[in-house]
User: Fold Nucleotide-diphospho-sugar transferase domain-containing protein from Aerosakkonema funiforme FACHB-1375.
Amino acid sequence: MEKQISPDSSTFKQSETFASDDCGLVYIATKDVYVKAAILSAKSAREYMGDRIKIHIWADLPDLCTESGVFDSIGQIVNPHRRSKVDYLPETPFQRTLYLDADTRVVSDITEMFELLDRFDIAMSHAHRRSGPKSQRQWRREFSTAFPQLNGGIILYRKTEKVIKFLESWKTAFHEANLGKDQLTLRELLWESDLQIYVLPPEYNIRYEKYLDVWTEEEAMPKILHMRKFIDELKNEVQALSK
Assistant:
């Protein structure tokens, strides 16, 4: 099932601490619509980065992933659920990983993101709807709202003992807390951790199209779109075909 490639590393800026073939994108998707969305997201990454980037997916429909031809390696999800990502993030095959939710589209070459991991352990963007009542809920303790939730849909991280231990603790916390949402436990665990955390600029996690309407090129150039519409469009297609 796994296909290995040897990416051309010439377009990566070389680092003293990592090689380009240690970097890769990871998707974790369950159910037909989300797996199909992940395939489209991976294809968008290929459009801008070609075979220079490795792409791995964990899915409960591995045959569908194989048929797409876009992934370098594919893993079977055992006991799938809506937040299966918390179970598989620690299992990344890469030394430097960019996890992307299925409802994303890459709209630029984003290989520069991996350079952040020369300095930081993990990087995410602020959650956009962080003032809503669901986002304001607490898990075990209260602390400053100036440290809001970070969005768990796009996560850049290093495969070090410290980071993997953190991700394993998030997995455990998510299942034990039984809160449904994964960012509630993530926020508190990040607050308590000693990880070097970087907050990505908003262009690396654009949640709403309205930002594209108001930003100028001098303000920010879009890098990754992360929008619910990519799931809704697929669901509408499925419904139309079933009529």
Strands lie at 23-29, 54-59, 73-76, 96-100, 104-106, 122-124, 154-158, 197-199, 224-226. The helical segments are 32-49, 62-68, 85-88, 161-177, 183-192, 210-214, 229-242. The longest strand covers residues 23-29. The chain has one domain: 16-238.
